[in-house]
Amino acid sequence: MVMELLRDPVWLTAVSLGLALLFGAAGWHKLRNRAGFSAILQSYALLPERLVRPAALLVPWLELAAAAGLLISSGYPLAAVPGAALLLAYAAAMALSLLKGRRIADCGCHFGAQHQAVSAALVWRNLLLSGLALSLLQAPRSRELGVYDGLVIAAVLLCGCVLYLLANSLIANQQTARELSL
Prior knowledge:
Blueprint: H1 2-6, H2 9-32, H3 34-44, H4 49-71, H5 76-99, H6 120-135, H7 147-181
Helix pairs in contact: 2-4, 2-6, 2-7, 3-4, 4-5, 5-6
């Protein structure tokens, strides 16, 4: 039953639009502040110095390409894999930094004005988002979408955005609360 729901075009469309919004906003923000994003990449200390600037130029374009691919319904599988790969790379970079004991004040996600320190919760968030991206690899059930389906897609997308922003606020506030209690 659950697998059948995950193949429904309403679900797949809502996930695709949500991830397109996420990648589009993230890529746009990084392009607008390339110097800031370069500094954040450098703080991870995972790339050789000579690769930080090229990576800071490439990553936003990869995010925008994933967003564009996700907006094209036939592009789900094509964009789902690179999108999931980006999210898994972000999770891995954060996890490696945590394992090495680095305290990075800003993860580089920049969805909104709230900066977030790298934490295990952000690693899990990116793993969950990569799972959503990979769910787009499933062949959709064949059926036409109607007006009601459009309303459901909008509601699911709105709820997903609210949950994402709420989770990010909780993660950021948890870090702030820890710092205040010390």
